[in-house]
Amino acid sequence: MRMKELSGLNAILGPGGLTARFQPVIALSPSGPVLHALESLMRGPSGTNLESADVLFEYVRLKHEESTVDRACVQTALQAAARLPAGLRISINVHASTLGRDSDFISFLVRTADENGIPLTQLVIEIVEQKPFWEPSLQDALNRLRQLSVSIALDDVGLGYSNYRMMLDCKPDYFKIDSYVVRGSHDDLYRKAVLCSIAQLAAKFNAQVVAEGVEDAEDLEAVAEAGIGLTQGYYFSKPLTVEEFLASDWAHFSPAPMQPASQISLPAVS
Amino acid sequence: MLVVDDEEPILFAMREYFTTCGYEVDCARELEEAEALISNMEYAMVIADMRLTGIQGAEGLELVAFVRQRCFSARVIIMTAYGTAEAEGEARRLGVDSFLHKPQPLPEVAQIVENLLGSKVCA
Q1: CA B122 from centre of chain
Q2: Three-class SS of residue B112?
Q3: Interface residue A2 vs chain B (CB under 8 A)
Q4: What was the pLDDT predicted at A266?
Q5: Looking at the 3D structure of chain A, how many domains does it have?
Q6: For residues A68 and A212, what is the distance between their CA atoms, to the nearest angstrom?
Q7: Are the Cβ atoms of A49 and B25 closer than 8 angstroms?
Q8: What is the pLDDT of residue B113?
Q9: Of the candidate ranges A207-211, A227-231, A254-258, B42-46, the one whose mean pLDDT is the lowest
């Protein structure tokens, strides 16, 4: 049973309405797991229905306030990230509609990153969308992000509107496979087939693949067998506050070398 | 169950009463908040006020339509102090299970809930 004392958009946008957690994205290297990036994950107002990220963002979409709340999330995430060790990639979720319709969003992102001392080369924008959004302005925004050396990730690959069209429109640097595909893949030939298929497709895009929702060693093995090099999930770490991260072993891992999106050359299409 | 009403005292009373009866109760004050919860949870019962914005609204009816799209098996009760035959007819057309006029004693609401869910929880 949950009862809110505060609710609604004012509570989300008010002081302390949003708080950031960071979940490690781990590279599977021959020498062991290496911290590759941190995805910022938002929580809504504490003690309300909107504390849950799923409920929070569904509410925001129903209110058609994606852009306003995406800005607040960027600000919250980057302010928190400023307290993390330098040099870490920081991944932030943004709705495709925000990128396509909020013409000042990228300027806001650049300004906020600068204010918090986060180089743009360390930023990954994860594109999320729960409804169709096919406007040319999205590609213009993505091109501008690439020119700024911000990397692009397509979130929730395998579900909803993270489909082939979004892949073609976004040409992401990262494919993030939804946990629905990943969980239980160790004993499910069909899930394994989907993992392998996405890994092969991503390779053609010269993109890296992140398997989300890895919670046990068996699924981790299935992910590795599919040729997927990056994982995220409770097997390695739950989402952490800045303080929890700084106290964790991950804070002492060197980040993997960064390759800004602008330096990635796409393979020739044969 | 999910209880939706823009008046905090009503939410408080419903939450306390039905929690005591043994139900797990979520509460929402806005249409969108209720819809976001329904999108992420499975509710056996939704009890909603018809007006969630005070004067002219009929968001409770929108919520009935939303529930029927997302969670067909859920039972839905609409409560209102402004019930007209037209509103009740529209609610029935949308698939509401019970249309109640406020004020309604909570034990009577509980009896209707029990009848709809086929359960016997409240003494």
Answers
A1: 18
A2: helix
A3: yes
A4: 37
A5: 1
A6: 27
A7: no
A8: 94
A9: A254-258
